[in-house]
Amino acid sequence: MRLSIRHFPLLLLLVILCCSKAVGQVNYTGTELAVGVKGGTTFSLVTFSPSVNQKLKLGYMGGVVFRYSGEKNLALQVEANYIQKGWQETDADFNRTLNYVEVPLLSHFFFGKGVFRWIINIGPQISFLVNENIVGDATEPQHTELVKRRFDYGLCAGTGFEINTHRGGIYQLEARFAYSFSDFFDNSYSAQFQKSTSMALMVTAAVLFNTK
């Protein structure tokens, strides 16, 4: 399972690039300025070294979206989200929730004629840990280890579809994968864990309204 998850970011990026070329001839264009809200469900894991046996941890996220488009099939999308990440262990009744404020800066690609569009979002993100919650008996090092780095950064990519009615709003459904590059535990030579990075799959819905 760890092998497939580890290669998922590369596979997702490859699929997105191939699909982008396949639909590059779609000729929708127009200027848009839209703002809205989004919410959804997260499924997260943490890559530990040494490894920790885990299963997908269920969480939630929500936030606001700003999007500007002045080019053919391309827009800039900025979000500010409150998101739950962390891990849930299979060998013990223990889970640790890490709550972040996360800001993705995304290249937003859209393809399609009329009101229906296929969308792709890809770009960097930064996050800040605001609090955490522990459920279960703290008996292992990963249970009691203090978070050393509250600031996090990484990449995310997602795809989905939207119904853009222009005056009536934009209704969007997306699946997105995010991978962090920063270890939240101490990763020095003498530390307990040499790696502790988060990854999450998000399934979200959003509603935006055109202001221009």
Unreliable spans: 1-5, 19-29
- Can you count the beta strands? 9
Number of helices: 2
User: Alpha-carbon distance between the termini?
Assistant: 46 Å
Q: What is the share of helical residues? A: 10-25%
Oligomer: single chain
| Spatial sequence of strands, sheet with the most strands | 1-3-4-5-6-7-8-9
> Which structural class matches the secondary elements?
mainly beta
Written overview of the protein:
By secondary structure, the chain is mostly beta strands. Helices cover 12% and strands 61% of the residues. The protein contains 2 helices and 9 strands. The chain has helices at 2-22, 141-144, and strands at 32-49, 54-55, 57-71, 74-89, 95-111, 116-135, 151-164, 170-180, 195-210. The longest helix is centred in the first third of the chain and has 21 residues, at 2-22. It is elongated, with a radius of gyration of 19 Å. The termini are far apart. Residues 1-5 and 19-29 have low confidence and may be disordered.
Compact description:
This protein has helices at residues 2-22, 141-144; strands at 32-49, 54-55, 57-71, 74-89, 95-111, 116-135, 151-164, 170-180, 195-210. With 212 residues, the protein is mostly beta strands.
List the helices and strands and how they pair.
Elements: H1 2-22, E1 32-49, E2 54-55, E3 57-71, E4 74-89, E5 95-111, E6 116-135, H2 141-144, E7 151-164, E8 170-180, E9 195-210
Antiparallel strand pairs: 1-3, 1-9, 2-4, 3-4, 4-5, 5-6, 6-7, 7-8, 8-9
Key terms:
eight-stranded antiparallel barrel, disordered N terminus, mainly beta, about 210 residues
